[in-house]
Design brief:
Blueprint (H helix, E strand, L loop, with lengths): L1 H5 L5 H6 L12 E5 L3 H12 L3 E6 L2 H4 L8 E4 H4 L5 E4 L13 H4 L3 E4 L5 H6 L4 H8 L4 E4 L6 H6 L7 E6 L2 H13 L3 E4 L6 H6 L6 H33 L7 H35 L8 H8 L1 H21 L2 H4 L3 H8 L5 H15 L16 H5 L1 H13 L2 H11 L16 H5 L5
Parallel strand pairs: 1-2, 1-4, 2-3, 4-5, 5-6, 7-8
Antiparallel strand pairs: 6-7
The chain binds NADP nicotinamide-adenine-dinucleotide phosphate.
């Protein structure tokens, strides 16, 4: 098992077949790394290929030397920290104290803390790993950096999505030195201020897909509500009032009735914040006032809400495919419309038209009101109808003209007096929330 763990993420053959990793010029700046694990290996590879001389400090250099690029020197910890000015500490927090024997050699040097706590450790310790390291080595300058970059990214090279490296330290000079190294390695340093920010930086990798949390909870909440509603109407009511056992509908039929409702409401929730934002701008007569935080967040999450709507619609398509055709045909048009995510608002209009034509007569049939509850589709119509009506209202020339002017900087009470250009194409380019 331990032999397995010793294997590098990318085969050493590939690393050493890269001739840029085989030899580093003598005058290249020297960097130290404490630790010989996954992160240390990937870091050494990236540093060597970025033109740095690397010396790795290990408790057992003989065992680990073969896993590093041949241009990197692997030696005992004491020797590794003696000459470089910048030393990366690629060991876990619980082992920091085992490095205290190196205090004298490390005095006056820059220690780069790359560690990431687990969720439990993060909650358990009030002080960040970097601050803890600084307290153990008061004669050193500690810089927090590179913890958000995985060993894999380090080795494979930075990609657009994860180039940013948040950096913090109490010493601007040390921060600048590490930032320059990050740039040389192809990353984008982001100055996060003093070492007090280290806790915030250490929390970053713990946040899993932060932009998806609220939209996912929203979709889940809607699903639970609609599922419960459909359960009461389609399963409980026949059971209680007609003694019919329809519990077999729970895993497929009820889910399949619920999914398009969720998809449909989510799709309308993509457009609702835009409508609210436009209403606020019209009321305030300016675009230079901040939206309330909740609206700001809602606007920022529209993409995720739209994708979740698409996901529910696609899942509904899959379910319908598994059901007999006669049950699925009812949702075909909604599906077709929602699946075309690029059609966006048109999908919403088509879905609404379909739901209205499908349900118009049914909405007035008494037998459809089980337990006095209206059919599900009448409930789902509420938000989309509000959105479509509001959008139609905004198309009225008097309102649309005013909104366009506001969005291009005109203010009702402000000094900016503005006339809309006659060129319609230019007006079209105005950003719409
Ligand atoms: P790892 O593979 O377990 O390596 C840890 C290294 O620590 C060992 O190889 C060992 O090297 C060294 N070490 C020094 N003193 C030690 C002691 N007393 N007991 C045990 N080991 C000791 O871990 P890793 O994945 O490289 O992670 C190292 C650090 O980088 C951690 O703080 C981690 O949070 C951070 N990090 C890792 C990643 C990643 O993707 N792996 C990403 C971001 C940050 P020697 O035996 O040669 O001394």
């Amino acid at each position: 098992m331990s032999r397995e763990m010793d294997k590098p993420l990318i085969s050493l053959h590939l690393v050493d077949s890269d001739t840029s990793l085989a030899k580093v010029p003598d005058e290249a700046p020297k960097v130290g790394i404490l630790g010989s694990g996954d992160f240390a290996r990937s870091l050494a590879t990236r540093l060597v290929s970025s033109g740095f001389k690397v010396v790795v400090g290990s408790r057992n250099p003989k065992r680990t030397a073969g896993l590093f690029p041949s241009a990197a020197q692997v030696t005992f910890q004491e020797e590794a920290v003696s000459s470089p000015e910048v030393i990366f500490v690629a060991v876990f927090r619980e082992h920091y104290s085992s490095l205290c024997s190196l205090s004298d050699q490390l005095a006056g040097k820059i220690l780069v803390d790359v560690s990431n706590p687990t969720e439990q450790e993060h909650l358990q310790h009030r002080e960040s790993n970097a601050e803890y390291l600084a307290s153990l080595f008061p004669t050193c300058t500690v810089v927090k950096a590179f913890n958000v970059i995985s060993a894999w990214t380090l080795q494979a090279g930075p990609r657009d999505g994860n180039r940013q490296v948040p950096i913090c330290s109490d010493q601007p000079e040390a921060k600048r030195a590490v930032s320059e190294m990050a740039i040389t390695m192809g990353f984008m340093p982001v100055d996060m201020g003093s070492l007090a920010s280290a806790r915030e930086i250490e929390a970053m990798p713990l946040r899993l897909l932060p932009a998806w949390k609220v939209p996912t909870l929203l979709a889940l909440g809607l699903f639970i509500c609609f599922y419960a509603y459909n359960f009461v109407r389609d399963v409980l009511q026949p059971y209680v009032q007609e003694s019919k056992n329809k519990f077999f509908k729970l895993p497929v039929s009820v889910v399949n009735t619920t999914l398009p409702c969720v998809a449909y409401v989510l799709l309308s929730l993509v457009y609702l914040p835009g409508v609210l934002a436009a209403t606020l701008q019209l009321r305030r007569g300016t675009k230079y006032h901040r939206f309330p935080d909740w609206l700001d967040h809602w606007l920022q999450h529209r993409k995720q809400i739209g994708l979740l709507s698409f996901f529910c619609a696609a899942l509904h398509a899959l379910y319908s495919f598994c059901l007999p055709l006669r049950r699925s045909h009812r949702y075909d048009l909604v599906n077709l419309a929602v699946k075309q995510s690029s059609l966006g608002f048109l999908a919403l209009v088509l879905s609404t038209l379909h739901t209205l034509t499908y349900g118009w007569t049914r909405a007035f049939e008494e037998s459809r009101y089980k337990f006095y509850l209206p059919p599900t589709f009448t409930l789902t119509l509420l938000v989309p109808c509000v959105v479509i009506l509001a959008k139609a209202l905004f198309l009225l020339p008097c309102i649309s003209r005013r909104l366009t002017r506001i969005r291009r900087g005109w203010e009702r009470d402000g000094a900016i007096k503005f006339t809309l250009p006659t060129d319609n194409a230019l007006a079209e380019k105005t950003s719409h929330v």
